[in-house]
Design goal:
Oligomer: single chain
CATH class of the largest domain: Alpha Beta
Protein name: Glutaminase
Strand content: 5-15%
Bound molecules: glutamine
Shape: globular
Number of domains: 2
Number of helices: 14
CATH superfamily of the largest domain: DD-peptidase/beta-lactamase superfamily
CATH topology of the largest domain: Beta-lactamase
Number of strands: 12
Subunit structure: Homotetramer.
Distance between the termini: 18 Å
Catalytic activity: L-glutamine + H2O = L-glutamate + NH4(+)
Structural class: alpha+beta
Largest sheet: 5 strands, antiparallel
EC number: 3.5.1.2
CATH architecture of the largest domain: 3-Layer(aba) Sandwich
Strand order of the largest sheet: 3-2-11-10-9
Keywords: Acetylation, Hydrolase
Helix content: 40-55%
């Protein structure tokens, strides 16, 4: 199948859509992004790259950074991480606080805000914020093979000034003893992770290690088992209270962010990034999901599709 043609067809179709969802406006710089942006990039297992639309324009990856933060934290403390974060879908909004009371400050999974804040706190167990932010930047640059990736300081600052819900989550978990460090330092670091700016091309490249059993161009980043497990968490928890529907419609591990990006992995086959800033009610890219649905329908890349030799 001609994947270049396919991503161009999908882009042309979705460019005409008038129903594009709502751009996130609770983070002021994100409210200014034009809702008609659309990009898609697909890296195949053979290394070929297929892009269309605004695939080279950097956007705020937001919660997609939770995948990279989890990978770093597992590398640093291994399975001990699971003493402080669960592995179950929450069925609640990405920034929900409700389950934390009855579940004693242990977030359901690393891909909701509360979970990622704990993951960040774990990384700060042995690093200063500046070092942890530097480690994250080096990591995504290495994964993508691209040293031009940056953190958008204006987005990090805006979140610092307006992130009252995240402050509540962090303080509440601190009260339960599940955030150990200084809350302001933990949040400052978390906001910098969220403020990573990457294009679809860079993001799809950075997802290659999850496509290829933990390797990038033959170099081992994580074990095959760890890559499979991160993919499993992306499948079950990558889209908050929309995760079940995403699995039903697309059938691939994926992680969304309120910047409108989605990183999606077809294990052994492709690493895919889409970007359209308008969100659905759960905070996931509306047209990004449509694009992935179209891609999977045409390619059969769902992990639930039988592959017979
Ligand atoms: N779902 C998201 O992308 C949320 C990330 C955002 N930085 C927040 O903490 O609210």
């Amino acid at each position: 199948m001609d994947i270049t043609q396919l991503v161009q067809d999908i882009t042309a179709r979705l460019r005409q859509e008038s129903e594009r969802g709502q751009v996130a406006d609770y983070i002021p710089p994100l409210a200014c992004i034009a809702p008609d942006k659309f990009g898609i990039a697909v890296v195949l297992d053979d290394g070929s790259l297929h892009c269309a639309g605004d695939a080279d324009e950097p956007f705020s990856i937001q919660s997609i950074s939770k995948v990279f933060a989890l990978t770093l934290a597992l590398g640093s403390v291994g399975d001990q991480l699971w003493n402080r974060v669960g592995r179950e879908p929450s069925g609640s909004a990405f920034n929900s606080i409700v389950q934390l009371e009855s579940e004693h400050g242990i977030p359901r999974n690393p891909f909701i805000n509360a979970g990622a804040i704990v993951v960040t706190d774990v990384l700060l167990g042995h690093l200063e914020p500046r070092e942890a932010i530097g480690q994250m930047l080096r990591f995504v640059r290495e994964l993508a093979g691209d040293d031009t990736i940056l953190i958008d300081e204006s987005v990090a600052r805006a979140e610092q000034e307006t992130g009252f819900t995240n402050m509540a989550l962090a303080n509440y978990m601190r009260a339960f003893g599940n955030v150990h460090g200084d809350v302001a330092k933990v949040l400052g670091t978390y906001f910098h992770f969220c403020a990573l700016a990457m294009s679809c091309r860079q993001l799809a490249m950075a997802g290659r290690f999850l496509m290829d059993e933990g390797r990038v161009e033959g170099r081992r980043i994580v074990t095959g088992r760890r890559a499979r497990r991160i993919n499993a968490l992306m499948m079950s928890c990558g889209h908050y209270d929309n995760s079940g529907d995403f699995a039903y419609r697309i059938g691939l591990p994926g992680k969304s962010g309120v910047g409108g990006g989605i990183l999606c992995v077809a294990p052994g086959v492709a690493s895919i990034a889409v970007w359209s800033p308008g969100l659905n009610a759960s905070g996931n890219s509306h047209l990004g999901q449509r694009a992935l649905e179209m891609l999977v329908q045409r390619t059969g890349w769902s992990v639930f599709e039988a592959r017979r030799a």
